[in-house]
Amino acid sequence: MSPPLLTFQQATGSELGLVNRFYKANGHKGKCGRDDRVTLARSGDRIVGAVRLIHKGDIWLLRSLWIAGDQRRLGIGGQLLTACLQGLNAPVWCYPYAYLVDFYTAHGFCSALPEQAPAVIARPWQAYRDNGEEFALMVWQPPRSLP
């Protein structure tokens, strides 16, 4: 299957219900909060991918990067991640499954220790770990401007 022609855009508030239906129809239990910054990948009018950024003070938490089942392994996830990070000037943290660490590393994220993370990130990560989840802890830093 060849990669589809894609567009990437920020979801509007009125589209969050569509994103939640996309997640549910594609087997993901995540839901958008009304204040989430959601980036969509579309093929024509069809949503084929979505990712959420949750603002946590002066940082972001990346959640729910999800691609439609019939569109996986076509590079859409990497393109969507790049689109969602574009223009950000604050760190972005995420809790990927271990098998996704290489994917996030390839897109500029670095592994982090819990003591390096702000409490608003480290506490939930530790709670997941305490409940048996095997999530990694990673951070992306925005490019620095030259003086």
UniProtKB/TrEMBL annotation:
A Pfam family reported for this protein in Swiss-Prot or TrEMBL: Acetyltransf_7
GO molecular function terms noted in the UniProt entry: acyltransferase activity, transferring groups other than amino-acyl groups
Domain N-acetyltransferase, chain residue ranges per copy: 1-130
Name of the molecule in the record: N-acetyltransferase domain-containing protein
